[in-house]
Amino acid sequence: MAGNEEKQARTGTLYVVATPIGNLEDITLRAVRILGQVDLIAAEDTRHTRKLLSHLSLSKPMISYYKDRETARSGKIIEELLAGRNVALVSDAGTPAISDPGAILVAQCHEQAIEVIPVPGPSALTAALSVAGLSQPAFTFVGFLPAKKSQRLKTLTAHARDETAMVFYESPRRVCNTLAECREVLGERKVFIGRELTKMHEELLTGTISRLLAVLTEREQIRGEFVVVVFPDQSSQPVMPEDLQELLGWYRDNSGLSLKDSVRKIAGDLNLSRSLVYEEALQVWAKK
Length: 288
Hints:
Blueprint: H1 2-10, E1 13-17, H2 29-37, E2 40-43, H3 46-55, E3 62-64, H4 70-82, E4 87-90, H5 103-111, E5 115-119, H6 124-132, E6 139-144, H7 149-158, E7 165-170, H8 175-186, E8 190-195, E9 203-208, H9 209-217, E10 226-230, H10 244-255, H11 259-270, H12 274-286
Parallel strand pairs: 1-4, 1-5, 2-3, 2-4, 6-7
Antiparallel strand pairs: 7-10, 8-9, 8-10
């Protein structure tokens, strides 16, 4: 026990620090404090992070930590942490380890019993979702779609029957092709596009895939990074009867069936999505 306590006392802490995705005013007070206090900053691109530190009037030793060298650099950073140094992990923009380098290092820290602390803040994913207008809280985030067309089509096909929105990042070079492939695989859907979020030329677009594809293809040049939210297929979404909770209440009190069996029977009898009926049932059973 004493040995473990001594190890914890000696080891440093890894801070996973979110940084602005465009507007430097979005950095949090806590992030500024942590960046000023740590011994070392592990940065996706040290040149990019140096500009941020200069803006904050900070100067810190840095080590590059980019995708192609994640495994090798993780070992070096672990050594620093085990030596008692505190390290801040940052990406070029947003929250590390979410479609950015960081997951390998975080996992190795957990294996070594090194403390990992999130310092939350800007994220292109949550920024887009907050203004997309989704009525359902559930969504599927797939990060960047594969570069190869065959793999992109495979990924889209795998999510074609999802009852939740699909969210992904896309580059200006591929966004039109990807939207066309979405229409081909998923059919006509409502989509939301956030371009250059929080930056000077921020743009938010909502409409069908065809409409937004037409808007973008008319432009001589497409610039900026995109977050795309593809809404679920509304034509396949069953209309929930207004008295469903009342029906579930009757099953709860009178049928003798469990929640699971009640959901299975009601969903089958009314041709409804079992997962949606289950969500309603949880609310009804909680009132018992």
